[in-house]
Amino acid sequence: MLWIQHGWIANDSMLYFEMARHFSVGEFKKAFAVEGFTWGLYPGLIALVHVVSGLSLQASANLLIVLFFMLIVWGLMRMVSIAGGNEHMQSYAVFLLLGAGYIVGDVLPMASRDLGYWAMIIHAINQLILFYQHGRWRSALNWQGLALLAMLFRIEGAVHLLVLPLVGFFISSTASSTLQRIVMPYVLLIFAALLSPLVVLLGHINLDDLGRVKELVTGLSDIKANIEQNLVRRVEVMHIHVIGDPFREYAWFTFLLAYFSITTLKCLSVAGWAPTLLAWAERRTVKKSVQPVAYRVLFFWLIISWLIGCLITFKVNLLSPRYVALFGFVLIVFASFALYRLLHQKTTISLAKKLLLGLTGLIVIAGFISNIKPKHESFYYEIDAVHYVQDRLNPGEQALYTSAKQRFYAGAPFDTRFDYDWTDLQKRIEAGNIQQYRYISIKSDIYPAEQSRLSDLNLQSHGFQLEKTFSGHKNKKLVLIFRRKN
Questions:
Q1: Which of residues 350, 372, 394 is at a domain's end?
Q2: CA 157, CA 39: separation in Å to the nearest integer?
Q3: pTM of the model
Q4: SS3 for 450?
Q5: Are 284 and 381 contained in the same domain?
Q6: Of 37, 69, 116, whose CA–CA distance to 14 is shortest?
Q7: Pairing outcome for strands 439-445 and 464-471
Protein backbone atom coordinates (compact mmCIF):
# COMPACT_ATOMS: atom_id res chain seq x y z
CA MET A 1 0.00 0.00 0.00
CA LEU A 2 2.92 2.32 0.66
CA TRP A 3 4.52 1.35 -2.64
CA ILE A 4 1.44 2.08 -4.75
CA GLN A 5 1.37 5.63 -3.35
CA HIS A 6 4.48 6.43 -5.45
CA GLY A 7 5.63 9.01 -2.91
CA TRP A 8 2.23 10.70 -2.44
CA ILE A 9 1.98 12.71 0.78
CA ALA A 10 -0.57 14.73 2.74
CA ASN A 11 -0.09 18.43 3.43
CA ASP A 12 0.58 17.82 7.12
CA SER A 13 3.41 15.46 6.17
CA MET A 14 5.44 18.40 4.89
CA LEU A 15 5.23 20.03 8.32
CA TYR A 16 6.48 16.85 10.00
CA PHE A 17 9.32 16.43 7.50
CA GLU A 18 10.49 20.03 7.93
CA MET A 19 10.47 19.72 11.72
CA ALA A 20 12.27 16.37 11.46
CA ARG A 21 14.90 17.95 9.21
CA HIS A 22 15.68 20.53 11.88
CA PHE A 23 15.62 17.92 14.66
CA SER A 24 18.06 15.71 12.77
CA VAL A 25 20.73 18.45 12.76
CA GLY A 26 20.08 19.60 16.31
CA GLU A 27 18.12 22.75 15.43
CA PHE A 28 15.42 22.27 18.06
CA LYS A 29 14.29 25.90 18.31
CA LYS A 30 13.91 26.12 14.54
CA ALA A 31 11.96 22.85 14.55
CA PHE A 32 9.38 24.14 17.01
CA ALA A 33 9.26 27.46 15.15
CA VAL A 34 7.96 25.76 11.98
CA GLU A 35 4.41 27.16 11.76
CA GLY A 36 4.44 27.30 15.57
CA PHE A 37 3.66 23.58 15.81
CA THR A 38 4.82 22.39 19.25
CA TRP A 39 3.69 18.75 19.15
CA GLY A 40 7.10 17.35 18.22
CA LEU A 41 7.06 13.66 19.17
CA TYR A 42 6.21 12.30 15.74
CA PRO A 43 8.64 14.55 13.81
CA GLY A 44 11.23 13.69 16.45
CA LEU A 45 10.75 9.98 15.82
CA ILE A 46 11.11 10.54 12.08
CA ALA A 47 14.36 12.40 12.72
CA LEU A 48 15.62 9.63 15.00
CA VAL A 49 14.96 6.91 12.43
CA HIS A 50 16.51 9.12 9.74
CA VAL A 51 19.72 9.67 11.74
CA VAL A 52 20.06 6.06 12.91
CA SER A 53 19.17 4.34 9.63
CA GLY A 54 20.41 6.83 7.06
CA LEU A 55 17.07 6.61 5.24
CA SER A 56 15.45 9.70 3.78
CA LEU A 57 12.91 11.52 5.93
CA GLN A 58 10.01 10.18 3.88
CA ALA A 59 11.35 6.61 3.97
CA SER A 60 11.87 6.97 7.73
CA ALA A 61 8.24 8.06 8.11
CA ASN A 62 7.13 5.05 6.06
CA LEU A 63 9.15 2.74 8.31
CA LEU A 64 7.38 4.23 11.33
CA ILE A 65 4.04 3.69 9.61
CA VAL A 66 4.81 -0.03 9.26
CA LEU A 67 5.83 -0.20 12.92
CA PHE A 68 2.73 1.64 14.11
CA PHE A 69 0.43 -0.55 12.03
CA MET A 70 2.04 -3.68 13.47
CA LEU A 71 1.42 -2.26 16.95
CA ILE A 72 -2.21 -1.55 16.03
CA VAL A 73 -2.75 -5.12 14.80
CA TRP A 74 -1.07 -6.55 17.91
CA GLY A 75 -3.06 -4.23 20.19
CA LEU A 76 -6.34 -5.09 18.48
CA MET A 77 -5.68 -8.83 18.78
CA ARG A 78 -4.70 -8.34 22.42
CA MET A 79 -7.88 -6.36 23.03
CA VAL A 80 -10.02 -9.18 21.65
CA SER A 81 -8.14 -11.65 23.85
CA ILE A 82 -8.53 -9.52 26.99
CA ALA A 83 -12.24 -9.21 26.21
CA GLY A 84 -12.53 -13.00 26.28
CA GLY A 85 -12.02 -13.81 22.62
CA ASN A 86 -10.18 -16.79 21.19
CA GLU A 87 -7.71 -17.06 18.32
CA HIS A 88 -10.50 -17.27 15.74
CA MET A 89 -11.93 -13.97 16.95
CA GLN A 90 -8.50 -12.35 16.86
CA SER A 91 -8.11 -13.45 13.25
CA TYR A 92 -11.55 -12.09 12.40
CA ALA A 93 -10.63 -8.73 13.93
CA VAL A 94 -7.54 -8.52 11.71
CA PHE A 95 -9.64 -9.58 8.70
CA LEU A 96 -12.13 -6.79 9.37
CA LEU A 97 -9.34 -4.27 9.89
CA LEU A 98 -7.66 -5.09 6.58
CA GLY A 99 -10.96 -4.46 4.82
CA ALA A 100 -11.39 -1.02 6.39
CA GLY A 101 -11.14 1.28 3.40
CA TYR A 102 -10.53 4.52 5.27
CA ILE A 103 -8.23 3.37 8.08
CA VAL A 104 -6.07 1.08 5.95
CA GLY A 105 -6.65 2.38 2.44
CA ASP A 106 -6.54 6.13 3.07
CA VAL A 107 -4.74 6.90 6.35
CA LEU A 108 -2.19 4.07 6.49
CA PRO A 109 -0.20 5.19 3.42
CA MET A 110 0.09 8.76 4.74
CA ALA A 111 3.04 10.01 6.76
CA SER A 112 0.58 10.66 9.58
CA ARG A 113 0.85 10.80 13.36
CA ASP A 114 -2.62 9.29 13.61
CA LEU A 115 -1.30 5.73 13.41
CA GLY A 116 1.05 6.35 16.32
CA TYR A 117 -1.82 7.85 18.29
CA TRP A 118 -4.11 4.92 17.54
CA ALA A 119 -1.42 2.38 18.44
CA MET A 120 -0.67 4.00 21.81
CA ILE A 121 -4.30 4.53 22.81
CA ILE A 122 -5.31 0.97 21.89
CA HIS A 123 -2.53 -0.47 24.07
CA ALA A 124 -3.42 2.03 26.80
CA ILE A 125 -7.05 0.86 26.81
CA ASN A 126 -5.84 -2.73 27.05
CA GLN A 127 -3.94 -1.84 30.21
CA LEU A 128 -6.95 0.00 31.64
CA ILE A 129 -9.14 -3.06 31.09
CA LEU A 130 -6.51 -5.29 32.72
CA PHE A 131 -6.39 -2.93 35.69
CA TYR A 132 -10.15 -3.11 36.21
CA GLN A 133 -10.05 -6.88 35.80
CA HIS A 134 -7.16 -7.58 38.19
CA GLY A 135 -6.51 -4.37 40.15
CA ARG A 136 -2.74 -4.36 39.60
CA TRP A 137 -0.66 -1.22 40.05
CA ARG A 138 1.46 -2.11 37.04
CA SER A 139 -1.56 -2.01 34.73
CA ALA A 140 -2.69 1.33 36.18
CA LEU A 141 0.74 2.87 35.60
CA ASN A 142 1.02 1.34 32.12
CA TRP A 143 -2.37 2.81 31.23
CA GLN A 144 -1.28 6.30 32.23
CA GLY A 145 2.13 6.06 30.57
CA LEU A 146 0.71 4.85 27.26
CA ALA A 147 -2.12 7.40 27.37
CA LEU A 148 0.45 10.16 27.92
CA LEU A 149 2.39 8.90 24.89
CA ALA A 150 -0.84 8.93 22.88
CA MET A 151 -1.41 12.52 24.01
CA LEU A 152 2.01 13.46 22.61
CA PHE A 153 0.81 12.26 19.21
CA ARG A 154 -2.60 13.94 19.37
CA ILE A 155 -4.07 16.19 22.04
CA GLU A 156 -7.28 14.12 22.01
CA GLY A 157 -5.33 11.55 24.02
CA ALA A 158 -5.58 13.90 27.00
CA VAL A 159 -9.37 13.64 26.88
CA HIS A 160 -9.13 9.86 27.09
CA LEU A 161 -6.64 10.13 29.95
CA LEU A 162 -8.95 12.43 31.89
CA VAL A 163 -12.34 10.90 31.13
CA LEU A 164 -12.01 7.15 30.51
CA PRO A 165 -11.16 6.17 34.13
CA LEU A 166 -14.57 7.53 35.15
CA VAL A 167 -15.89 4.20 33.91
CA GLY A 168 -14.63 2.88 37.26
CA PHE A 169 -17.84 4.21 38.82
CA PHE A 170 -19.82 1.72 36.72
CA ILE A 171 -17.66 -1.36 37.31
CA SER A 172 -18.06 -3.84 40.13
CA SER A 173 -14.99 -5.92 40.82
CA THR A 174 -13.58 -7.85 43.75
CA ALA A 175 -10.06 -7.05 42.53
CA SER A 176 -10.22 -3.48 43.88
CA SER A 177 -12.40 -1.11 45.87
CA THR A 178 -14.34 1.75 44.29
CA LEU A 179 -11.81 4.25 45.65
CA GLN A 180 -8.93 2.28 44.14
CA ARG A 181 -10.72 2.00 40.80
CA ILE A 182 -11.08 5.78 40.68
CA VAL A 183 -7.76 6.92 42.16
CA MET A 184 -5.21 4.45 40.76
CA PRO A 185 -5.77 5.26 37.05
CA TYR A 186 -5.19 8.94 37.92
CA VAL A 187 -2.20 8.62 40.26
CA LEU A 188 0.32 10.21 37.86
CA LEU A 189 -2.08 13.07 37.14
CA ILE A 190 -2.69 13.57 40.85
CA PHE A 191 1.07 13.68 41.44
CA ALA A 192 1.46 16.18 38.58
CA ALA A 193 -1.36 18.33 39.97
CA LEU A 194 0.34 18.45 43.38
CA LEU A 195 3.58 19.58 41.77
CA SER A 196 1.99 22.10 39.38
CA PRO A 197 1.88 25.06 41.84
CA LEU A 198 5.61 24.64 42.46
CA VAL A 199 6.34 24.43 38.73
CA VAL A 200 4.27 27.54 38.02
CA LEU A 201 6.00 29.51 40.79
CA LEU A 202 9.53 28.49 39.83
CA GLY A 203 9.10 28.38 36.07
CA HIS A 204 6.75 31.35 35.54
CA ILE A 205 4.64 29.23 33.16
CA ASN A 206 1.55 30.72 31.56
CA LEU A 207 -1.16 29.16 29.44
CA ASP A 208 0.65 29.85 26.16
CA ASP A 209 3.66 27.85 27.36
CA LEU A 210 1.53 24.71 27.49
CA GLY A 211 1.30 24.47 23.71
CA ARG A 212 -1.72 22.53 22.53
CA VAL A 213 -2.52 21.42 26.09
CA LYS A 214 -4.16 24.82 26.52
CA GLU A 215 -6.87 23.59 24.11
CA LEU A 216 -8.18 21.51 27.00
CA VAL A 217 -8.77 24.76 28.87
CA THR A 218 -9.95 26.88 25.95
CA GLY A 219 -11.87 24.17 24.07
CA LEU A 220 -15.31 24.94 25.48
CA SER A 221 -14.85 28.69 24.99
CA ASP A 222 -13.80 28.02 21.37
CA ILE A 223 -16.99 26.01 20.84
CA LYS A 224 -19.06 28.80 22.38
CA ALA A 225 -17.37 31.38 20.14
CA ASN A 226 -17.99 29.27 17.04
CA ILE A 227 -21.65 28.87 17.93
CA GLU A 228 -22.07 32.62 18.43
CA GLN A 229 -20.06 33.68 15.37
CA ASN A 230 -20.97 31.01 12.82
CA LEU A 231 -23.63 28.52 13.82
CA VAL A 232 -26.23 31.09 14.87
CA ARG A 233 -26.03 32.67 11.41
CA ARG A 234 -26.45 29.28 9.74
CA VAL A 235 -29.46 28.49 11.88
CA GLU A 236 -30.99 31.83 10.89
CA VAL A 237 -30.56 30.92 7.22
CA MET A 238 -32.21 27.56 7.89
CA HIS A 239 -34.92 29.31 9.90
CA ILE A 240 -35.81 31.66 7.05
CA HIS A 241 -34.96 29.86 3.81
CA VAL A 242 -35.04 26.11 4.56
CA ILE A 243 -37.57 25.26 7.26
CA GLY A 244 -40.03 28.08 6.67
CA ASP A 245 -43.54 28.25 8.06
CA PRO A 246 -44.96 26.58 10.03
CA PHE A 247 -41.80 24.86 11.33
CA ARG A 248 -39.49 27.82 11.91
CA GLU A 249 -39.25 27.16 15.63
CA TYR A 250 -37.63 23.80 14.84
CA ALA A 251 -34.62 25.35 13.07
CA TRP A 252 -32.22 24.75 15.96
CA PHE A 253 -33.53 21.23 16.48
CA THR A 254 -33.06 20.43 12.78
CA PHE A 255 -29.59 21.94 12.72
CA LEU A 256 -28.42 20.07 15.83
CA LEU A 257 -29.94 16.86 14.52
CA ALA A 258 -27.94 17.28 11.31
CA TYR A 259 -24.68 17.90 13.17
CA PHE A 260 -25.14 14.93 15.49
CA SER A 261 -26.19 12.75 12.56
CA ILE A 262 -23.05 13.65 10.62
CA THR A 263 -20.87 12.65 13.57
CA THR A 264 -22.82 9.44 14.07
CA LEU A 265 -22.61 8.42 10.41
CA LYS A 266 -18.87 9.08 10.32
CA CYS A 267 -18.43 6.98 13.48
CA LEU A 268 -20.46 4.09 12.09
CA SER A 269 -18.71 4.08 8.71
CA VAL A 270 -15.09 4.85 9.65
CA ALA A 271 -14.11 1.16 9.82
CA GLY A 272 -16.40 0.23 6.95
CA TRP A 273 -20.01 -0.87 7.24
CA ALA A 274 -19.23 -4.55 7.83
CA PRO A 275 -18.23 -4.20 11.52
CA THR A 276 -21.23 -1.94 12.14
CA LEU A 277 -23.71 -4.39 10.59
CA LEU A 278 -22.22 -7.38 12.41
CA ALA A 279 -22.01 -5.68 15.80
CA TRP A 280 -25.59 -4.41 15.54
CA ALA A 281 -27.10 -7.66 14.24
CA GLU A 282 -25.48 -9.69 17.04
CA ARG A 283 -25.51 -7.00 19.74
CA ARG A 284 -27.08 -9.32 22.33
CA THR A 285 -24.54 -12.02 21.59
CA VAL A 286 -21.73 -9.48 21.85
CA LYS A 287 -22.92 -8.26 25.23
CA LYS A 288 -23.15 -11.82 26.55
CA SER A 289 -19.87 -13.01 25.05
CA VAL A 290 -17.54 -10.13 25.88
CA GLN A 291 -16.06 -10.24 29.39
CA PRO A 292 -18.27 -7.86 31.48
CA VAL A 293 -15.53 -5.49 32.65
CA ALA A 294 -14.06 -5.27 29.15
CA TYR A 295 -17.52 -4.67 27.67
CA ARG A 296 -18.20 -1.72 29.96
CA VAL A 297 -14.82 -0.13 29.29
CA LEU A 298 -15.14 -0.60 25.52
CA PHE A 299 -18.72 0.67 25.46
CA PHE A 300 -17.71 3.71 27.51
CA TRP A 301 -14.82 4.26 25.09
CA LEU A 302 -17.33 4.10 22.24
CA ILE A 303 -19.36 6.90 23.82
CA ILE A 304 -16.30 9.05 24.54
CA SER A 305 -15.10 8.70 20.94
CA TRP A 306 -18.51 9.83 19.69
CA LEU A 307 -18.56 12.79 22.08
CA ILE A 308 -15.07 13.86 20.97
CA GLY A 309 -16.32 13.79 17.39
CA CYS A 310 -19.29 15.97 18.34
CA LEU A 311 -17.10 18.49 20.15
CA ILE A 312 -14.71 18.76 17.20
CA THR A 313 -17.66 19.26 14.85
CA PHE A 314 -19.04 22.10 16.94
CA LYS A 315 -15.59 23.65 17.34
CA VAL A 316 -14.44 23.78 13.71
CA ASN A 317 -17.58 22.90 11.66
CA LEU A 318 -15.64 20.01 10.18
CA LEU A 319 -15.01 16.38 11.10
CA SER A 320 -12.42 14.22 9.40
CA PRO A 321 -13.15 10.50 9.91
CA ARG A 322 -9.69 10.02 11.45
CA TYR A 323 -10.87 11.90 14.55
CA VAL A 324 -13.42 9.17 15.25
CA ALA A 325 -11.37 6.19 14.03
CA LEU A 326 -11.18 4.83 17.59
CA PHE A 327 -14.95 4.30 17.43
CA GLY A 328 -14.27 2.02 14.48
CA PHE A 329 -11.72 -0.06 16.38
CA VAL A 330 -14.29 -0.80 19.10
CA LEU A 331 -16.79 -1.86 16.44
CA ILE A 332 -14.16 -4.20 14.95
CA VAL A 333 -13.63 -5.83 18.36
CA PHE A 334 -17.37 -6.31 18.89
CA ALA A 335 -17.83 -7.50 15.30
CA SER A 336 -15.16 -10.19 15.74
CA PHE A 337 -17.32 -11.76 18.47
CA ALA A 338 -20.41 -11.43 16.27
CA LEU A 339 -18.66 -13.03 13.30
CA TYR A 340 -17.49 -15.94 15.43
CA ARG A 341 -21.03 -16.50 16.62
CA LEU A 342 -22.41 -16.56 13.08
CA LEU A 343 -19.70 -18.83 11.69
CA HIS A 344 -19.35 -21.29 14.55
CA GLN A 345 -22.75 -21.68 16.17
CA LYS A 346 -23.93 -25.27 16.11
CA THR A 347 -27.53 -24.59 15.16
CA THR A 348 -28.49 -23.60 11.63
CA ILE A 349 -28.56 -19.84 11.19
CA SER A 350 -31.48 -18.07 9.59
CA LEU A 351 -31.56 -16.95 5.98
CA ALA A 352 -31.34 -13.31 7.07
CA LYS A 353 -28.11 -13.99 8.93
CA LYS A 354 -26.71 -15.95 6.01
CA LEU A 355 -27.40 -12.94 3.82
CA LEU A 356 -25.74 -10.73 6.44
CA LEU A 357 -22.65 -12.95 6.40
CA GLY A 358 -22.49 -12.82 2.62
CA LEU A 359 -22.99 -9.06 2.50
CA THR A 360 -20.38 -8.27 5.14
CA GLY A 361 -17.95 -10.70 3.54
CA LEU A 362 -18.32 -8.96 0.20
CA ILE A 363 -17.90 -5.54 1.84
CA VAL A 364 -14.67 -6.56 3.58
CA ILE A 365 -13.21 -8.29 0.51
CA ALA A 366 -14.12 -5.32 -1.69
CA GLY A 367 -12.49 -3.00 0.83
CA PHE A 368 -9.33 -5.10 0.94
CA ILE A 369 -9.07 -5.23 -2.86
CA SER A 370 -9.60 -1.48 -3.03
CA ASN A 371 -6.85 -0.99 -0.46
CA ILE A 372 -4.20 -2.97 -2.34
CA LYS A 373 -5.05 -2.37 -5.99
CA PRO A 374 -3.00 0.22 -7.91
CA LYS A 375 -4.46 3.71 -7.86
CA HIS A 376 -5.88 5.32 -10.97
CA GLU A 377 -3.35 7.56 -12.69
CA SER A 378 -5.47 10.60 -11.81
CA PHE A 379 -4.51 9.96 -8.17
CA TYR A 380 -0.95 11.03 -9.03
CA TYR A 381 -1.88 14.06 -11.11
CA GLU A 382 0.21 16.47 -9.02
CA ILE A 383 3.23 14.17 -9.08
CA ASP A 384 2.85 13.75 -12.84
CA ALA A 385 2.59 17.52 -13.29
CA VAL A 386 5.86 18.05 -11.41
CA HIS A 387 7.61 15.36 -13.46
CA TYR A 388 6.36 17.00 -16.65
CA VAL A 389 7.77 20.38 -15.66
CA GLN A 390 11.05 19.07 -14.25
CA ASP A 391 11.74 17.08 -17.41
CA ARG A 392 11.46 20.27 -19.49
CA LEU A 393 13.45 22.68 -17.37
CA ASN A 394 16.90 23.55 -18.63
CA PRO A 395 19.79 24.10 -16.20
CA GLY A 396 19.30 27.40 -14.38
CA GLU A 397 15.59 27.64 -15.16
CA GLN A 398 12.95 27.75 -12.43
CA ALA A 399 9.31 26.81 -11.99
CA LEU A 400 6.67 28.25 -9.69
CA TYR A 401 4.28 25.79 -8.07
CA THR A 402 1.20 27.16 -6.30
CA SER A 403 0.55 23.74 -4.72
CA ALA A 404 2.47 22.94 -1.52
CA LYS A 405 2.58 19.25 -2.46
CA GLN A 406 4.06 20.04 -5.84
CA ARG A 407 6.77 22.17 -4.23
CA PHE A 408 7.66 19.18 -2.06
CA TYR A 409 7.70 16.77 -5.01
CA ALA A 410 9.94 19.21 -6.89
CA GLY A 411 12.39 19.40 -3.98
CA ALA A 412 11.79 23.10 -3.35
CA PRO A 413 12.66 24.56 0.09
CA PHE A 414 9.79 24.47 2.58
CA ASP A 415 7.90 27.71 3.07
CA THR A 416 4.40 26.57 4.02
CA ARG A 417 2.32 23.40 3.90
CA PHE A 418 -0.54 25.37 2.38
CA ASP A 419 -1.15 26.23 -1.26
CA TYR A 420 -0.56 29.77 -2.46
CA ASP A 421 -3.87 31.56 -2.82
CA TRP A 422 -5.00 33.71 -5.72
CA THR A 423 -4.10 36.93 -3.91
CA ASP A 424 -0.52 35.80 -3.43
CA LEU A 425 -0.21 34.86 -7.09
CA GLN A 426 -1.70 38.20 -8.16
CA LYS A 427 0.86 40.06 -6.03
CA ARG A 428 3.69 38.13 -7.68
CA ILE A 429 2.34 39.06 -11.11
CA GLU A 430 1.97 42.75 -10.21
CA ALA A 431 5.51 42.83 -8.83
CA GLY A 432 6.85 41.24 -12.01
CA ASN A 433 8.30 38.30 -10.09
CA ILE A 434 6.82 35.68 -12.38
CA GLN A 435 9.17 36.58 -15.22
CA GLN A 436 11.96 34.66 -13.49
CA TYR A 437 10.04 31.40 -14.01
CA ARG A 438 10.01 29.28 -17.14
CA TYR A 439 6.92 27.39 -15.98
CA ILE A 440 4.04 28.21 -13.66
CA SER A 441 1.98 25.33 -12.28
CA ILE A 442 -1.42 26.37 -10.92
CA LYS A 443 -3.68 24.04 -8.97
CA SER A 444 -7.36 24.90 -9.34
CA ASP A 445 -10.87 23.58 -8.83
CA ILE A 446 -13.24 23.13 -11.75
CA TYR A 447 -15.85 25.41 -10.20
CA PRO A 448 -16.77 28.65 -12.01
CA ALA A 449 -15.51 30.90 -9.20
CA GLU A 450 -12.05 29.35 -9.40
CA GLN A 451 -11.98 29.50 -13.18
CA SER A 452 -13.01 33.15 -13.03
CA ARG A 453 -10.09 33.94 -10.73
CA LEU A 454 -7.77 32.12 -13.10
CA SER A 455 -9.03 34.24 -16.00
CA ASP A 456 -8.51 37.40 -13.95
CA LEU A 457 -4.81 36.60 -13.68
CA ASN A 458 -4.55 36.98 -17.47
CA LEU A 459 -1.25 35.12 -17.64
CA GLN A 460 -1.29 35.27 -21.44
CA SER A 461 -0.75 39.03 -21.33
CA HIS A 462 2.36 38.44 -19.23
CA GLY A 463 3.95 36.16 -21.79
CA PHE A 464 2.69 32.76 -20.58
CA GLN A 465 0.60 30.27 -22.51
CA LEU A 466 -1.23 27.16 -21.34
CA GLU A 467 0.79 24.11 -22.37
CA LYS A 468 -0.61 21.15 -20.43
CA THR A 469 -3.50 20.25 -18.11
CA PHE A 470 -3.53 17.42 -15.57
CA SER A 471 -6.86 16.28 -14.10
CA GLY A 472 -7.32 14.90 -10.61
CA HIS A 473 -9.73 12.24 -9.35
CA LYS A 474 -13.15 12.57 -10.99
CA ASN A 475 -11.84 15.70 -12.74
CA LYS A 476 -12.68 17.86 -9.73
CA LYS A 477 -9.15 19.27 -9.46
CA LEU A 478 -6.86 20.55 -12.19
CA VAL A 479 -3.20 21.41 -12.53
CA LEU A 480 -2.62 23.92 -15.30
CA ILE A 481 0.92 24.18 -16.66
CA PHE A 482 1.79 27.57 -18.17
CA ARG A 483 5.03 28.10 -20.10
CA ARG A 484 6.75 31.42 -20.75
CA LYS A 485 6.87 32.06 -24.49
CA ASN A 486 10.37 33.53 -24.70
A1: 372
A2: 13
A3: 0.91
A4: helix
A5: no
A6: 37
A7: unpaired
